[in-house]
Design brief:
The protein is built from nine helices and eight strands. The chain is α/β, with parallel strands linked by helices.
C-alpha cells in the first residue's frame, strides 16, 4: 500500500478509539505516567489493600507469578518487571489506573491529546456518533485521562470505555465482538481507530471498519498500516451517518 495520505470517509454509528499513539503521545505515557505509577506502587498497595479493585489486582499478580503469599515487595518487583517490558498485564494496568486516577484528581497529572483529536471528537459527538474507548489501560485510567485534559473534562463525549479486562486482548477478534455485544451496535456500523496494525486486523476480522492512525514519531509508525485506510490525524477522518 502507498504511504500517501488522503481524507478517509467511513460510514459508522459508533467510533471506537485507542489512546496511546492514536489520541495521545506514547511518549507522555512512557515518560510521565509510567514513572509516576512506579514510584507509588508500594505505598498504594499498603494504603489501599482493602480496596476491591486493589485486592483483585493483587490476587491476579500472585496467581500470575505463582506465589499466593507474595508480600508487597515481591508484588512491586513483579509489577516493575512487567512495566520494564511494557507488558499489557491486566493487574498492572488496574493498579496503574487507580494510581493515575488519584494523581489526576489531585491535580498532579494532566493528560495529553494531539491537537486534532478534541475538535474531531466533539464534531463526531455533535453529529450523533457514539464514541467509545478501547485501550489496554484500565477503564479507571481511561476515565481519569479524558476527565483531566488540557481542553477540560471530555467524559461527556463518550458512551463507554473498554479495556483488556472488560473486553479482552486487543489483538484478538473476540474482544471486538464482545464490545459489539456490549454496545448493541452492529459491527458493520462500528469503526476502530488505532496506531497498531495487529489491532486493526483483529477489529476487521470481527466485522468492523478500520482506520490506521500513523503519526510521525510514534513507536508503531514504521510498521505501517497494512492494507487498512490510513491517516496522520483525526482531522483527516470523515464519519458519515449510516443510511
Amino acid at each position: 500500500m502507498s504511504d500517501a495520505v488522503v481524507v478517509v470517509a467511513v460510514t459508522a454509528e459508533a467510533v471506537v478509539v485507542d489512546i496511546e499513539g492514536t489520541t495521545s503521545a506514547t511518549s507522555f505515557v512512557v515518560d510521565t505516567l509510567y514513572p509516576y505509577s512506579r514510584a507509588r506502587f508500594g505505598a498504594w498497595i499498603d494504603g489501599h489493600s482493602q480496596h476491591p479493585d486493589t485486592r483483585r489486582a493483587l490476587a491476579q499478580v500472585r496467581e500470575l507469578i505463582g506465589e499466593p503469599a507474595a508480600d508487597t515487595a515481591r508484588v512491586v518487583t513483579a509489577l516493575g518487571t512487567w512495566l520494564d517490558a511494557d507488558e499489557k498485564v491486566t493487574p498492572l494496568k488496574t493498579l496503574q489506573g487507580l494510581i493515575w486516577e488519584a494523581g489526576f484528581a489531585a491535580g498532579e497529572l494532566t493528560s495529553h491529546l494531539y491537537p486534532d483529536v478534541v475538535p474531531a471528537l466533539r464534531s463526531w459527538h455533535d453529529a450523533g456518533r457514539r464514541l467509545y474507548v478501547f485501550s489496554s489501560g484500565s477503564v479507571a485510567a481511561q476515565r481519569a485521562w479524558f476527565a483531566h485534559t488540557p481542553a477540560g473534562d471530555l467524559l461527556g463525549l463518550f458512551s463507554g470505555h473498554f479495556d483488556t479486562e472488560t473486553a479482552g486482548p486487543k489483538r484478538q477478534p473476540p474482544s471486538y465482538a464482545a464490545i459489539t455485544a456490549a454496545t448493541g451496535i452492529a459491527p458493520e456500523r462500528t469503526v476502530f481507530l488505532s496506531d497498531l496494525v495487529d489491532e486493526l486486523d483483529a477489529a476487521r476480522a470481527a466485522g468492523w471498519s478500520t482506520v490506521g492512525v500513523r503519526r510521525p514519531g510514534e513507536p508503531n509508525h514504521d510498521r505501517g498500516m497494512g492494507d487498512h485506510p490510513m491517516v496522520n490525524g483525526f482531522d483527516q477522518v470523515r464519519i458519515l451517518p449510516p443510511a
